[in-house]
Amino acid sequence: MQQTEGMRAAGQYRAARSLLLECVNAQCGGDVRRRCAATLQKVDAVTPSIVVRAQLANGDDVTDVALSLGEEQLASKLDGMAIPVDPGEHRLVLRRPGHAPVTQVVNIREGEKFRAVDVMLEPAVLSAGGGSSNAPASSGFDGRLAAGGTLIGVGVVGLAAFTWLGLKARSDENELEKCEPLCSKAQGDTVLARYWMANVSGGIGVLALGAATWLLLSGPSEPSSTVSDLAGLSIVAGSDGAFASYEHQF
């Protein structure tokens, strides 16, 4: 009881009400509960309350709005019920998906009951593309990152194939030198074909890496993104060729 008196003196009516409610509902002696109930009635008589209503620009009421008192959430939705508050100045914050948060400062007097607080919600700021102000830039960066990662994968595979085919062709060419002049025409054609495929693969690899560099360096950057977004690239080289895979969430 003495603790609640101190809370009331400090203007902490809601905290005092909570303690008194616990006392009334506790399995205490009847005399203690009666005193808590009597004190609770006195506190309720002077505890202010507010009734918050949120409206759209067309005048329609909406209830799926979260209400906070500073950093403390008072309600997850507006149901028209009165909400007890402490007397004094308060910063009310209302949040609804698709709308910008609205802050309203109110000064509540002791004993003021059912104070009506009407708030007009405004749509979130949209860009010309129809999304939120930073969504198009983020989406554009993600798209460039995905495309750039794919091109890097193609470029690395191309260079890996160039290296492997070139080494294989060189090895076969050395074998031809050993069998001359008894080597078949097919063996010579195989060597030439591998040199040709190596050059084509190398050219594709260089072009792909160049395109990836231009793509990732052009346009606005996204500070929150990191190089780890390209960690899905893996390369495997073996005796039969070089293979690469790239995983990215689109």
Please tell me about this protein's structure.
This protein is of the alpha+beta class. It folds into three domains: 1-47, no CATH class; 48-124, Carboxypeptidase-like, regulatory domain (Immunoglobulin-like), CATH 2.60.40.1120; 135-246, no CATH class. 46% of the residues lie in helices and 22% in strands. Strands 1, 2, 5 and 9 form a four-stranded mixed beta sheet that branches. Strands 4-3-6-8 form a four-stranded antiparallel beta sheet, with no helix packed on it. Helix 4 (135-179) runs antiparallel to helix 5.
In short:
46% of the residues lie in helices and 22% in strands. The chain has helices at 2-9, 13-25, 30-46, 135-179, 185-217; strands spanning 49-55, 61-62, 66-69, 72-75, 83-84, 88-95, 99-100, 102-108, 115-120, 122-123, 233-238, 241-246.
Features:
4-stranded antiparallel beta sheet, 250 residues, alpha+beta, 4-stranded mixed beta sheet, 12 strands, rod-shaped, 22% strand, Immunoglobulin-like, single chain, 3 domains
